[in-house]
Amino acid sequence: MLYPIDWLLLHSEEALPRRSVKLFLIQGMRGLSGRSPGWIGENVACLNDLGISVLKNIAPVSPEKTLTAIEHALENDIEGEFTSSNNFHRRDFINLVRSIAYDSTYFTRCCDVILKFAINEDDDPSASADLEQVFWIMLSGTHAPPEVRLQYIDGLLKDSDRRCREMAVRLLRASLKSDMFTSSHSFTFGARPRDHGFYPSNAAKIKMWFGQFLDYATKLALDNSEQKDNVREIIASRIRGLWSIYDIQDKLEATAVALHADRPWGEGWIAIRQILKFDYPNENDEETRNRLIDLKFKLRPQNLIDKVRTYVLGDANYNLEYLDEDDESEAPFGYEGADKITRMLGQEIAADDTILDQLLPEMISSKGHRISIFGNGLALGAPNLLVLWEKLCSAVRKVPIESRNISIMLGFI
């Protein structure tokens, strides 16, 4: 049944008398409190600007009923219009749900709502960014404890939907973020008292937070799961920020050693070198610097295949300009040094058919930044250019078009 107040909110774009606004608010509040049906909970997916304005003003009266109303709209969103970027009020609904997520009681439900917006967005990744921020250690806007957030990530990783599993990895990355926090979210919700959400008030709480998420990430990185490589990369990308937290350095070192023992961890080796170069460039903290140097040599790639995967195929190989006197001493430093080593590796591999055949499938589908330089090295070291070219062409034909990267062939030419 469509009540008169609903019809006005859904269809009237004309200015209404000010005295009518009070009636709208009263009707909406009655609906929220359960004393009468009201308009909220029935038509929130179709509200115009006036209706959205009323909703945002009365939502703090009953966050649970507001959340239920939005969930109801999602359940009836068969065509995906409510969550799509075509919904002009999409941002208003996401902001409301983020405000409701302040209460840990509603955290999981709110995340589920934002997730549906996130997996249905195209060019505007704002919902994904909002969901990631909810998993930050600070400025998250929620007081959900780390155990609840970790449980949510674990649930997404076990979901049958690939998009949910990919989002879980992004949330895990967000949970390990340790610096450069900023947010445009409004941490207010009507007259309800609000702050910025969970905030670690002492070192013990910081250690507890990152310890839990790092343990979970390490377990995933050591398992034979589909997200193993992604999680290894996440730990490598976060290790520099986390190393500044003295209380978890032992755990970080143990993680690095375990990941390298499981499989050579080139990304970690590069990350440790970054820490040495930018955070410990001199002897001010000799004990920590020596510890990092020892760890760097433990993680250093040893054989030809490991070097190729680190310098050519790894996602972090664009950081290889951070060479120092302990690395490849015959090469100059910086970009030029990394490029020279990559080209030399290409020349070596060109003369070893066994290793080349093993690595070619990875090279054709890799997004590495120095693959074309490696291809140039292959050409320089090829015993027979035509034979090697045919081998490259044959390898490319075996890889699906959407996964191909022909940079190695461009470099060869």
Layout of helices and strands:
Elements: H1 4-11, H2 18-33, H3 49-58, H4 63-75, H5 90-100, H6 107-118, H7 126-133, H8 146-157, H9 162-175, H10 203-222, H11 228-243, H12 249-262, H13 266-278, H14 286-299, H15 304-313, H16 334-350, H17 353-365, H18 371-381, H19 385-397, H20 407-412
Helix pairs in contact: 2-3, 4-5, 4-6, 5-6, 6-7, 7-9, 8-9, 10-11, 10-12, 11-13, 13-14, 15-16, 16-18
Which descriptors apply to this entry?
single chain; 413 residues; mainly alpha; 20 helices; 0% strand
Kindly describe this structure.
With 413 residues, the chain is mainly α. Helices cover 61% and strands 0% of the residues.
Task: Produce a short descriptive summary.
The protein is mostly helical and 413 residues long. 61% of the residues lie in helices and 0% in strands. It has helices at 4-11, 18-33, 49-58, 63-75, 90-100, 107-118, 126-133, 146-157, 162-175, 203-222, 228-243, 249-262, 266-278, 286-299, 304-313, 334-350, 353-365, 371-381, 385-397, 407-412.
Strand content: under 5%
The topology string of helices and strands comes to: HHHHHHHHHHHHHHHHHHHH
Number of strands: 0
Mean pLDDT: 86
Percent of residues in helical segments? 55-70%
**Which parts are unreliable, with pLDDT below 50 for 5 consecutive residues or more?**
1-19, 328-332
Specify Rg, calculated over alpha carbons: 27 Å
What is the 3D form?
A: globular
The span between the termini is 71 Å
Helix-and-strand structural type: mainly alpha
Largest sheet: none
Total of helices: 20
